Amino acid sequence: MRDEAERAVETLLSHIGEDLKRPGLERTPRRFVGALEELTRGLREDPPEIVFFPVEKSGPVIVEDIRAVSLCEHHLLPIFLSISVAYLPGSEAPGLSKVIRLVKWAAARLIMQERFTEWLADILLEKLRARAVAVKVCGVHTCSYIRGVKEEHHLMITEARRGEIDVKLRCRRPVCT
Ligand SMILES: [Zn+2]
């Protein structure tokens, strides 16, 4: 299966006019398949197990600026993301590092940002056993930099909420461009 994937990359390289015999490309198909696997590991791995701690009563918890890289499902090009989440814990609160790992797991796949944001809100509500959640996703879509739109500093911002949660999430620029 992996061999076939590497051969498919060779086909793509030939298609764009590359010389497969030149030394610089010797390990490129293998590296590309490896990078693609890493960028989409969320498709094959189970979501991280969440550890919970009892809490008496808690206001909103905000985790800002979780960095992740997804692939756009239309062009298979990277989307650099800064994701901020807020949640109102139930009777138990999730550990911080697990929240971050869950967001990074969710992002590791092909996405359309609008749909991804809604789905992430659902996942967080369920997996964090939260009473309410808010999600803000800020994305730099490399496909829109390369194709057509030459607006150099655009950032796509999407938000989703589940339940009542009174927070204002900020947006960070995920890469310096
Ligand atoms: Zn795209």
TrEMBL record:
Lineage top rank: taxon: Archaea
GO MF terms, alphabetically ordered: GTP binding; GTP cyclohydrolase I activity; zinc ion binding
GO CC list: cytoplasm
Keywords: Hydrolase
Domain GTP cyclohydrolase I: 6-168
Entry-linked SUPFAM superfamilies: Tetrahydrobiopterin biosynthesis enzymes-like
GO biological process, one term: tetrahydrofolate biosynthetic process
Pathway stated in the Swiss-Prot or TrEMBL entry: Cofactor biosynthesis; 7,8-dihydroneopterin triphosphate biosynthesis; 7,8-dihydroneopterin triphosphate from GTP: step 1/1
PROSITE patterns: GTP_CYCLOHYDROL_1_1 (PS00859)
Protein name: GTP cyclohydrolase I
Organism lineage: Archaea, Thermoproteota, Thermoprotei, Thermoproteales, Thermoproteaceae
EC number, UniProt record: 3.5.4.16
